[in-house]
Amino acid sequence: MDMDFVAERGLVLLGCGKMGSAMLQGWLSGGLPPASVWVIDPNPTDWLQGTGVHINAALPEAPGIVLIAVKPQMMGEALPAIAAMGGGGTLFVSVAAGTSIAAFEAVLGGNSPIIRAMPNTPAAVGRGITAIVGNDHANTAQMDLTETLLQAVGQVVRLEGESQMDAVTGVSGSGPAYVFHMIECLAQAGEAQGLSPALAMQLAQATVAGAGALAEAADETPAQLRVNVTSPNGTTQAGLEVLMDEGNGLPPLMKKTVAAAANRSRELRDGG
Question: Is the pTM of this model over 0.70?
Fold first, then answer.
């Protein structure tokens, strides 16, 4: 099962906001014919209208894939439109946060192949990471195809079970916001040491982006990269002694941060 299957059977994209648009752009750039894509979105952008895909048109009865990318609050309106496609040869992939596989099975039928995915916002620039997990009816070929589709916006990892989605939410789903806040804090700290706001922000943004790129590209672990730039009794060591304090530095703070997000994900999953 490959992208030719998608082109032949058709792909339905429910929701074309930032995430849906980023994925669609990747697919079209990769050669997926616009005529094989149907998009349902109440407010299609000018960009979407210029792609050549079908927009808010009658859907094929049995498309190869339905990819659900609507906001959680829109889920109730979106699912009835695809309920009749369940139980057949259509694969359902959801990138909608907070909606469980069981919730989809309740609407589409338990014998429908369903794959749940958790992307993150750097997908908008092709640098996302998405975790996927399927139900019992999602076979290896369908998991492979989903991975190929989602690689249009970055890396893809597979989970052992859906219960890990809460932890993924706490780390990579919510994680970009933690990094954005670190950039804010780093810039503010630079201002406090006498830099102009604009210069402090430029230094902070480039430092975090550059360090992240280096961490991905280097063969060494992040721990080793940290050691590499830490001269004994130097400036970096002085800063790290504050940041790495096991009592009130970054280690306990990050554990509490990720735990709070993961716990909230569990609460929302359980209807809280």
Answer: yes
